[in-house]
Amino acid sequence: MPPHAGHVALVEAAERLVDELTVLVCWLPDDPIPGPLRLEWMRGLFPACRVVGHGEVVPQEPADSPDFWPIWRRIIAQAHAEPIDYVFAGEDYGLDLAAHVDGFFVPLGGRVLNADDDLASLSGSAVRADPTAHWPLLPEPVRAHYRRTVCLHGAESTGKSTLAAQLAGELGTHWVPEYGRSHCEAHRGPLSREDLLLIGRAQQAMAQAAARWAGALLLLDTDALMTAAWCEMLLGERPAELMEMGKADLYLLLEPDLPWVDDGTRFFADPADRARFARLVEGVLLDAGVRFERIGGTGDERLAAARAAIDGLSCQ
């Protein structure tokens, strides 16, 4: 909990030594990571293996019950009915387990070493306590579980793109730019409902495609909720499709306290229109029920406020 480099190395090494490998994923109801989710991860990581889940509440140690070994022999027989040649485990219990299922213990241990540390001692509890510190040792499904997404949200000319680039540089991560700007630059003219739906879909697709390259934090210049606000401002409606798309873990709502600058793709120079758009932009976040923090000020003040909000976002 969760699978990490040690588990992956153990299973991949074991696969090379047998014709058929069964991986048993066991869990209890109060596990910090749900068992069915871990089972899904392991099946995705090892499609050539027989990956079996077990979620019954059973004794975890021989001292817990005189029936400990009969219970576990039954569990293993249900998962792997064929005769067992080898039993692979990274811990000493594998020796006793092998004796009880008539297999030969192969203590591969999933050893993963580098020049400085013996990572064989890497534990799931250490990963859960600080996933970011162990990021290179996590397979992609586990990274996706812990990755957090921060989206910049605000009316026109509130510095979203500038702030996204600054944050990405300071935090050493990637940011996904605004598809809508590219769309408007390529297709001059009024935006239709279909245009705006495509903008929302394309923005989400870009974010999904970029996520696995981003590390523990992914920054978005915008997302479909911002497109929903644009649709409401321009067309008087807020499509459900846009409101139902994937949400970021944290939104930074940029206050409209910067000067409005016409960059050739902006609409609302009139202060009344800008104020109305800002209200719609905030209303979308409120109606979506997402977590957001207000970010105001200029220059370093704005950047510092954004950094503080992100620092408060845990990936545990």
Tell me the layout of helices and strands:
Blueprint: H1 5-15, E1 22-26, H2 35-45, E2 50-54, H3 68-79, E3 86-88, H4 93-100, E4 104-106, H5 124-129, H6 140-146, E5 148-153, H7 160-171, E6 174-176, H8 179-186, H9 193-210, E7 217-220, H10 224-235, H11 240-244, E8 250-254, H12 271-288, E9 292-295, H13 299-311
Written description of the protein model:
The chain has 316 residues and is of the alpha/beta class. It has two domains: 126 residues, 3-Layer(aba) Sandwich (Rossmann fold); 165 residues, P-loop containing nucleotide triphosphate hydrolases (Rossmann fold). The chain is built from 13 helices and nine strands. The strands form three sheets. It has a five-stranded parallel sheet with strand order 6-7-5-8-9, sandwiched between helices. Strand 8, helix 12 and strand 9 form a beta-alpha-beta unit. The chain is elongated, with a radius of gyration of 26 Å. The two termini are 12 Å apart. The relative contact order is 0.12.
Portion of residues in beta strands equals 5-15%
Order of helices and strands: HEHEHEHEHHEHEHHEHHEHEH
CATH class division of the largest domain:
Alpha Beta
Overall pLDDT metric: 89
Question: What is the CATH fold-level name of the largest domain?
Answer: Rossmann fold
Figure out the total of helices.
13
Number of strands: 9
Low-confidence stretches: none
Record the strand order, biggest sheet: 6-7-5-8-9
CATH homologous superfamily name of the largest domain? Answer: P-loop containing nucleotide triphosphate hydrolases
Number of domains: 2
Name of the CATH architecture of the largest domain? 3-Layer(aba) Sandwich
Class from helix and strand fractions: alpha/beta
Q: Major sheet, described briefly?
A: 5 strands, parallel
* Head-to-tail CA distance between termini: 12 Å
In helices, the fraction of residues equals 40-55%
Shape: elongated
